[in-house]
């Protein structure tokens, strides 16, 4: 039984067909890697998984209690609540995921506030736990992201994304743009989190190396379509 199931998604921007009848399934505990060249539709698909965007056609089901058969029928408020409580996301651009001038700990605590936690000491403690799990240096937790390196900013995004133990963690090019040595460290953290907590992940990258390191199953996209799909070992065996 898939945890996440999207079917028949299409989306056109002007005369660009960003998604053309795309379907995807994600099973509990797995890492689905989505690869493809720039412009192939990967980010658009991820934004739909995060309910940030609606398709022109298609359906979206999450196998969680008390949700409708098609999440695109939810209104803006319901989508925001679902996103806040059940979906974590890490963007390539930290400006999309973080308030760059607020403290890092505050950025993580904001997620918990949305979910109803109001006790200051608990917010701070939980934010610290999530930052520690993301291997963020705790003595820096009150520094604003704008003063931190790119690798540390991604760790703050990650801490924010996992603070509420989301049903699914979405990662959009989480290491692109970082120094290669830092990329490896962030990937190690993701891998450790995945192994320890069995977090279901969807990882978008144009970097085959990243997908090969992380993904159990791979979907290859081209011009808004899924052109190949399978277990990582099989997909990477092809010539
Ligand atoms: P990828 O993540 O694989 O690079 P995207 O999903 O970002 O691809 O983009 C797919 C196509 O849709 C591209 O041609 C892109 O320019 C277009 N596109 C994506 N989002 C928008 C948008 N909000 N407005 C207009 N065009 C968009
Ligand atoms: P709106 O619905 O008004 O666009 P949201 O409340 O959904 O705004 O998002 C508030 C902030 O949280 C934004 O900075 C956004 O980038 C970020 N965000 C969106 N989705 C998620 C998510 N699943 N997990 C963490 N942060 C998110």
From TrEMBL:
Keyword vocabulary terms for this entry: ATP-binding, Lyase, Nucleotide-binding
Q: Which GO terms describe its biological process?
A: organic phosphonate catabolic process
| Domain ABC transporter positions | 4-239
Q: Which SUPFAM superfamilies match?
A: P-loop containing nucleoside triphosphate hydrolases (SSF52540)
Spell out the Pfam families in the cross-references.
ABC_tran
GO MF annotations in UniProt: ATP binding; ATP hydrolysis activity; lyase activity
Name of this protein: Phosphonate C-P lyase system protein PhnK
- Species whose genome carries this gene: Pseudooceanicola antarcticus
Gene label? phnK
């Amino acid at each position: 039984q898939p945890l996440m199931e999207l079917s028949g998604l299409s989306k056109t921007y002007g005369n660009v067909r960003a998604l053309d009848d795309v379907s995807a399934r994600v099973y509990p505990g797995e890492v689905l890697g989505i690869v493809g060249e720039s412009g192939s539709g990967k980010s658009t698909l991820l934004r739909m998984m995060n309910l940030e965007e609606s398709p022109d056609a298609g359906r979206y089901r999450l196998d969680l209690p008390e949700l409708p058969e098609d999440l695109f029928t939810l209104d803006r408020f319901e989508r925001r609540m679902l996103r806040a409580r059940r979906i974590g996301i890490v963007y390539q651009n930290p400006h999309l995921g973080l308030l760059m001038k607020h403290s890092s700990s505050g950025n993580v605590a904001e997620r918990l506030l949305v979910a109803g936690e109001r006790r200051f000491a608990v917010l701070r403690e939980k934010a610290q736990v999530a930052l520690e799990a993301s291997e963020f240096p705790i003595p820096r937790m009150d520094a604003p992201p704008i003063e931190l390196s790119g690798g540390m900013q991604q760790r703050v995004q990650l801490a924010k994304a996992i603070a509420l133990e989301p049903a699914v963690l979405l990662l959009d090019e989480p290491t692109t743009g970082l120094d290669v040595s830092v990329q490896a460290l962030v990937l190690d953290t993701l891998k450790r989190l995945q192994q320890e907590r069995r977090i279901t992940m969807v990882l978008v990258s144009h970097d085959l190396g990243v997908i090969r390191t992380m993904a159990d199953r791979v979907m290859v996209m081209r011009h808004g379509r899924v052109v190949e799909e399978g277990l990582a070992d099989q997909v990477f065996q092809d010539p």
